Amino acid sequence: MPTETIQGAAPQGQTQAGATPERVDRISAAAYRIRHHALNMGEVQGQGYVGQALGAADMLATVYGDQLRFKAEDPHWEARDRFLLSTGHYAIGHYAALAEAGIVPVQELETYGSDDSRLPMSGMSTYTPGMEISGGSLGHGLTIAVGMALGLRFQGSSARVFNFLSDGELDEGSTWEAAMGAHHHQLGNLTAMVDINALQADGKTDTVLRTEPVTEKWEAFGWYTQRVDGNDVGALLAAFDNAAAQSAAVGRPSVILCDTKVGRGVPLLEEREKAHFMRIEEHEWQVCREQLTAGYEGKASA
Fold first, then answer.
1. Residues paired with 202 in a beta bridge
2. Which of 35, 36, 130, 235 could cross-link to 228 by cystine, CB 3.0-4.6 Å?
3. Which run of H or of E encompasses 208?
4. What is the bridge-based pairing of β-strands 47-48 and 278-279?
5. Which residues of the chain carry a pLDDT beneath 50?
6. Quick one: which H or E segment has residue 296?
7. Contact, 200 vs 167, CB < 8 A?
8. Half-sphere exposure in the Cβ direction for 55 (13 Å, CA)
9. Residue 126 CB-density burial (10 A; 0-12 exposed, 13-18 middle, 19+ buried)
10. 87 and 261 in contact (C-beta within 8 Å)?
11. Model pLDDT for residues 133-188, shown as the tens digit of each residue
12. Distance separating alpha carbons of residues 179 and 188, to the nearest angstrom
């Protein structure tokens, strides 16, 4: 993998040559490895936010494998695109993506959640290479992203800012204040991606605080809005290409609303009732890996 620029990443304001089979296969393979890494990390603790990592793997693979400009050997490269993980509890998936990108050594994933590890269970920018902000209470990521995108524009930088949010974060008023601010400042260098898995800590999203019709809400805030199947790599590539074509120093911010399934790729976990924070039995981890591999290899040979 190239270290300065992700292979195939389009220059600002330009699009890719479409979601070709080669691109889809490459990103699908990266998503499979991210899921495999997440299962291995989860086994270290025996529990965790594994379901979110599996569900968001296609989103993370698409951004890191196809869109983001970065240098793996220099996570603080000034011209890099910024990826902000607003949902700090998704760190297990982010670490897997950072390993896939070559920013964190794969062997270091074995230290996940351990004492003195650079990979704590919730994302911390002071510990982990490539982690732009620390996670914790939800609702802060987009506000930081707005300030970062505005600052980069003042500096004359062509870097883009990508902010990963969850649908649960749409409960937070600060998210919508930031969305309004991004439109006001015409931050065309900002792309938000929302993982809509319909689940949060207190239950199903539509029973905790209903956010639908969410597409119309983002559009009303002035954002270039797309909604796709977040577990369909081809659809994700097309959506991010469209967002890249919209990207400009001054213009509309973009949001990609991604419908995903918690535990995607592992049937045993897809149907688990209490899926926000999963406790997985010792004997189940290998079953999960076998199901993941069987599903991926079955699709690859189809």
1. none
2. 235
3. helix 205-208
4. antiparallel
5. 1-8, 10-15
6. helix 284-301
7. yes
8. 25
9. exposed
10. no
11. 998 778 799 999 999 999 999 999 999 999 999 998 999 999 999 999 999 999 99
12. 12
